[in-house]
Amino acid sequence: MLEIISGTVFLFLGFTAFGVAVMRRRSGAAILAWLGLWSAMYGALHLAGPLVDVTRLPHSYKIAASYLEVLTLYFILVVATRAWLELTVGKIRLFLWVVIYMGLAIAFAGIAVFLFTGQTNKFLPYNNLLAVCSTSVLLIVVSVPKLSRSCLATPNSRVLFAGTLIFALQALASNVRGSLGYHSAPIWDSLGFAVFLLSISYVALQMVFVSERRLLSIEKELAIAREIQLSILPGANPEIENLGIAAAYRPMTEVAGDFYDFIPVDRYRVGVLVADVSGHGVPAALIAAMLKAGMQSVVPCAHDPGEVMRRLNRSICAICGQSRGQFVTAAYLFLDMQSQHALYSAAGHPPLLLSRGGRLLRIESNGLVCGVVPEADYPVCSVPICSGDRFLLCTDGVMEPENASGIAFGDAKLEQAFLGAGLRSPAELIDKLFTEIRAWQPASKPQQDDITIVVIDVQ
Predict the structure, then answer these.
(1) pLDDT in tens, 225-240
(2) Residues 90, 133, 69, CA angle at the centre, nearest 5°?
(3) Which of 170, 194, 220 is the endpoint of a domain?
């Protein structure tokens, strides 16, 4: 009865730990999952034997219980070692992996013999010997302060040492008594394992809490970084004579590598820059923030897109350098409502789209992506401005979303939505584009890239 009770308790604790690990999986709680599985297997092992002896149970249950017992006997060492692996760092991990692979080999051999001959204990002595050797090594590691500091990833090794020592001494005493023909009550084995399991669980929970605090700190810093990044984007769209301008910025993560800015020269002229830093996350966001500082150097030449791109390229080369592998695609459009002309230049960026009289024009004037060589040249394209024209600048995040079949939204869908906007305002067109992108992409699939869109109407 005591074995049934203790087995039930360990089984319950195992399922509880496993459930907590599943709920907190983002916090690196794999240690709880392995501990839970270890505890559940230990509990099942203590339940299987006594319950098989209950004669009123169906014969099929007894057969199933015998199979479960053999599986647990052979695989519990592998699971236990895998739990220890989550607590260790450095070279000791290589030793634990060797133990795991040896344990798997012994387990498969022992189970194969059981299936063909019915012998349960054929390979158990080898399994027990491996368990004794690995436990001895781990006991030495947790006992020696120098080794515990270099081999354990735990904030409190003294608790782990106490639990391991009690468990090892109890197991040693049990084996010595057994070899002398004396057998102690199984409850002492359960108590020793319970102390050991509690010590590891205590350390594991400390590790999870430390990971939680670290994640919360990172999330808080990312939220601040997002606020800072949003602050470097234009707070409002410029008011230019006979132009309607709208812009939208949707990062894939908290911070992003997309960037856009306006350079209003006067009430008739404005420059529009859209840039996309390679990669995602914090590194790309840092370069995008530096682009904002680099924009100050291009204000005097805002009327010359070629010079704007050259200066930005030199700035990005100085920031990134060739060895870092960070590059920037960019497009710059300068609109002069007095002369009714637009000038456009780009660096490896998706083309400027122009809707005119129901027709779509793709304007490409690309030079080398920024950040490759400091002295690159960027061609400039001149486009006459007509009443009713609509310009669209965007990053490639608009074209990249894929549907359930793996087909990208692509240029064709973008151009179809752009031409089909009718009399919608620039802001309404941007909303329509995002709606179509969301409809194209499965709801379960996250955004795949940062997205920036700027739409300009000639009124």
Answers:
(1) 777 767 777 878 888 8
(2) 110
(3) 220
C-alpha angle 3-186-156 in degrees, rounded to nearest 5: 95
Q: Which residues lie closer than 8 Å to 40 by C-beta, 6 or more apart?
A: 10, 11, 14, 15, 18
pTM for this model (two decimals): 0.61
Contact 422, 209 (CB under 8 A): no
Of 196, 220, 244, which residue sits at a domain end? Answer: 220
For residue 127, the 8-state DSSP code is H
What does the H/E/C string look like for 374-427? CCCCCCCEEEECCCCCEEEEECHHHCCCECCCCCECHHHHHHHHHHCCCCCCHH
User: Is residue 153 a part of any domain in this protein?
Assistant: yes
The encoded tokens of residue 7 equal 């087995």
Residue 54: domain span:
2-220
From CA 378, how far away is CA 310, in angstroms rounded?
7
Element (H, E) at 254: none
Q: What is the pLDDT of residues 340-395, one digit of tens each?
A: 999 999 998 989 999 988 888 888 888 888 888 888 889 999 999 999 899 999 98
Question: DSSP alpha helices (H): ranges in 180-304?
Answer: 186-232, 281-294
Per the CB < 8 A criterion, the answer to whether 270 and 303 are in contact is no
